[in-house]
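Hey, resending since the last one bounced:
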Amino acid sequence: MASKLQQLQSKARQASQLVVKHGTPYYKQLLEENKQYIQEPPTVEKCNLLAKQLFYTRLASIPVRYEAFWKELDYVKHLWRNRQELKVEDAGITALFGLECFAWFCAGEIVGRGFTFTGYYV
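The C-alpha coordinates again:
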Protein backbone atom coordinates (compact mmCIF):
# COMPACT_ATOMS: atom_id res chain seq x y z
CA MET A 1 0.00 0.00 0.00
CA ALA A 2 2.86 2.37 0.84
CA SER A 3 4.49 1.72 -2.54
CA LYS A 4 1.24 2.58 -4.30
CA LEU A 5 1.04 5.82 -2.33
CA GLN A 6 4.62 6.71 -3.28
CA GLN A 7 3.88 5.86 -6.90
CA LEU A 8 0.76 8.08 -6.83
CA GLN A 9 2.72 10.92 -5.23
CA SER A 10 5.39 10.59 -7.90
CA LYS A 11 2.84 10.76 -10.70
CA ALA A 12 1.14 13.75 -9.08
CA ARG A 13 4.51 15.50 -8.79
CA GLN A 14 5.24 14.82 -12.48
CA ALA A 15 1.83 16.14 -13.49
CA SER A 16 2.21 19.31 -11.43
CA GLN A 17 5.67 19.93 -12.93
CA LEU A 18 4.19 19.52 -16.41
CA VAL A 19 1.44 22.03 -15.58
CA VAL A 20 3.96 24.51 -14.17
CA LYS A 21 6.17 24.16 -17.24
CA HIS A 22 3.51 24.27 -19.96
CA GLY A 23 0.46 25.75 -18.20
CA THR A 24 1.16 29.47 -18.54
CA PRO A 25 2.06 29.46 -22.25
CA TYR A 26 -0.99 27.29 -22.99
CA TYR A 27 -3.23 29.63 -20.98
CA LYS A 28 -1.93 32.69 -22.83
CA GLN A 29 -2.28 30.98 -26.21
CA LEU A 30 -5.82 29.88 -25.40
CA LEU A 31 -6.84 33.41 -24.41
CA GLU A 32 -5.22 34.90 -27.50
CA GLU A 33 -6.97 32.46 -29.84
CA ASN A 34 -10.35 33.11 -28.23
CA LYS A 35 -10.13 36.82 -27.47
CA GLN A 36 -13.22 37.52 -29.61
CA TYR A 37 -15.29 35.76 -26.92
CA ILE A 38 -13.89 37.73 -23.99
CA GLN A 39 -16.15 40.48 -22.68
CA GLU A 40 -14.55 43.71 -21.55
CA PRO A 41 -14.29 44.67 -18.76
CA PRO A 42 -13.94 41.21 -17.16
CA THR A 43 -15.80 42.01 -13.93
CA VAL A 44 -18.16 40.11 -11.67
CA GLU A 45 -21.01 42.38 -12.77
CA LYS A 46 -20.36 41.53 -16.43
CA CYS A 47 -20.30 37.81 -15.59
CA ASN A 48 -23.60 38.12 -13.72
CA LEU A 49 -25.13 39.97 -16.67
CA LEU A 50 -23.97 37.29 -19.11
CA ALA A 51 -25.27 34.53 -16.83
CA LYS A 52 -28.69 36.19 -16.71
CA GLN A 53 -28.68 36.69 -20.48
CA LEU A 54 -27.86 33.01 -20.99
CA PHE A 55 -30.56 31.88 -18.58
CA TYR A 56 -33.31 34.02 -20.07
CA THR A 57 -32.24 33.28 -23.65
CA ARG A 58 -32.50 29.57 -22.94
CA LEU A 59 -35.82 30.15 -21.23
CA ALA A 60 -37.07 32.02 -24.31
CA SER A 61 -35.97 29.15 -26.57
CA ILE A 62 -38.22 26.61 -24.81
CA PRO A 63 -41.29 27.23 -27.05
CA VAL A 64 -39.18 26.77 -30.19
CA ARG A 65 -37.66 23.56 -28.88
CA TYR A 66 -41.11 22.39 -27.74
CA GLU A 67 -42.50 22.82 -31.25
CA ALA A 68 -39.48 21.06 -32.77
CA PHE A 69 -40.03 18.14 -30.38
CA TRP A 70 -43.65 17.74 -31.45
CA LYS A 71 -42.69 17.93 -35.13
CA GLU A 72 -40.16 15.16 -34.59
CA LEU A 73 -42.74 13.11 -32.72
CA ASP A 74 -45.28 13.58 -35.53
CA TYR A 75 -42.63 12.42 -38.01
CA VAL A 76 -41.99 9.28 -35.95
CA LYS A 77 -45.74 8.63 -35.73
CA HIS A 78 -45.99 9.00 -39.51
CA LEU A 79 -43.14 6.52 -39.99
CA TRP A 80 -44.79 4.08 -37.60
CA ARG A 81 -48.13 4.29 -39.45
CA ASN A 82 -46.35 3.66 -42.76
CA ARG A 83 -43.87 1.10 -41.47
CA GLN A 84 -44.65 -1.28 -44.33
CA GLU A 85 -42.99 1.21 -46.68
CA LEU A 86 -39.94 1.52 -44.42
CA LYS A 87 -36.63 0.97 -46.20
CA VAL A 88 -33.90 -1.28 -44.84
CA GLU A 89 -31.57 1.72 -44.46
CA ASP A 90 -34.09 3.54 -42.25
CA ALA A 91 -34.63 0.44 -40.13
CA GLY A 92 -30.85 0.02 -39.76
CA ILE A 93 -30.40 3.62 -38.67
CA THR A 94 -33.22 3.22 -36.16
CA ALA A 95 -31.67 0.04 -34.79
CA LEU A 96 -28.26 1.68 -34.47
CA PHE A 97 -29.81 4.66 -32.68
CA GLY A 98 -31.57 2.33 -30.24
CA LEU A 99 -28.34 0.44 -29.66
CA GLU A 100 -26.49 3.69 -29.00
CA CYS A 101 -29.13 4.79 -26.49
CA PHE A 102 -28.83 1.45 -24.72
CA ALA A 103 -25.02 1.72 -24.65
CA TRP A 104 -25.19 5.23 -23.14
CA PHE A 105 -27.66 3.90 -20.56
CA CYS A 106 -25.26 1.09 -19.64
CA ALA A 107 -22.32 3.51 -19.46
CA GLY A 108 -24.35 5.79 -17.20
CA GLU A 109 -25.20 2.91 -14.92
CA ILE A 110 -21.53 1.92 -14.67
CA VAL A 111 -20.50 5.51 -13.92
CA GLY A 112 -23.30 5.81 -11.36
CA ARG A 113 -21.98 2.76 -9.53
CA GLY A 114 -18.50 4.24 -9.34
CA PHE A 115 -17.07 2.39 -12.35
CA THR A 116 -17.75 -1.03 -10.88
CA PHE A 117 -19.04 -4.01 -12.83
CA THR A 118 -21.52 -5.98 -10.76
CA GLY A 119 -21.82 -9.68 -11.35
CA TYR A 120 -18.37 -9.96 -12.91
CA TYR A 121 -15.24 -11.09 -11.14
CA VAL A 122 -12.33 -9.66 -13.04
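The chain has a mean pLDDT of 88.

Sorry for the duplicate.
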